[in-house]
Amino acid sequence: MTTLLIATSNPGKVAELAAMLEGLNCRVIGFADLPETPAIVEETGLTFAENALLKAEHYHRLTGLPALADDSGLEVDALDGRPGVYSARYGGDQLSSAEQIHLLLGEMKDVPDHQRTARFVCNIALLGDGLNQMFEGRCEGLIAHEPRGDHGFGYDPIFIDAELGRTFAELTREEKAPRSHRGIALFQARQFLAEWLKSFPS
Ligand code: IMP
Question: Looking at ligand 1, which atom is closest to the CA of residue 181?
Fold first, then answer.
């Protein structure tokens, strides 16, 4: 059976991605299943796609396994697309999610409702021998004036889903998963993998 490496050091993400790939004709593993944890690659790309590819390439080269890597973040129009690829490190590595939200809301304090448009973007790269695919998921919304909701992580409490009118943190995990940027990109990756894996013995 083909083995697919989820190329991220974040155990929560491995679990989430592995759950969404369940039922495919492959064994899904994370770094925890490798004999040695590979060194983390620096995310030096200027786009989500560049970073996803950089990670997938690095870990495929290290392990020889087909690798799936993602990169994601929040683009706010009134901030010229920031925090973008710097979403995780916005304001410096030491800031908590609550502090990053505080920083972002401060920068947005004079921005009127109709200019508070934003989107979550996720790019997924799949790289292996004879395998080189990119997928993208986007979710459009608005930046709230204050945090709302207790679910999720990161910028979820201030991202209002354009269709539902609720922040991502007000959605249950089941409600968020299929409509999130990551869910949309991963659904495409799953469809692709299902076809690709047909050429391998089970
Ligand atoms: P990465 O894709 O793991 O590099 O994550 C980038 C950063 O973007 C995260 O640390 C969060 O700050 C933010 N982010 C990405 N996806 C989400 C999401 O679904 N909700 C909230 N924040 C997110």
Answer: 19
Active-site annotation holder among 33, 70, 71, 110: 71
Q: Ligand 1 site: residues with CB under 6 angstroms?
A: 70-74, 87-88, 120, 152-156, 168, 180
User: Which residue has a Cα nearest atom 11 of ligand 1?
Assistant: 154
Q: Closest Cα partner for 28 from 144, 197, 201?
A: 197
Q: Which domains does the chain have, with CATH numbers?
A: 2-199 (3.90.950.10)
pTM: 0.93
Distance CA 139, CA 143 (A): 13
**pLDDT digits 0-9 by tens, 134-188:** 999 999 999 999 999 999 999 999 999 999 999 999 999 889 989 999 999 999 9
Active-site annotation holds for 71: yes
How far apart are the CA of 156 and the centre of ligand 1, in A? 9
Q: How many CB atoms lie within 10 A of CB 32?
A: 9
Q: Give which of 20, 9, 36 is closest to 135, Cα–Cα.
A: 20
CA 55 to chain centroid, in Å, comes to 13
* C-alpha to C-alpha distance for 168 and 179, rounded to whole angstroms: 10
Map residue 40 onto helix, strand or coil. coil
- Angle 83-89-93 from CA coordinates, rounded to 5°: 150
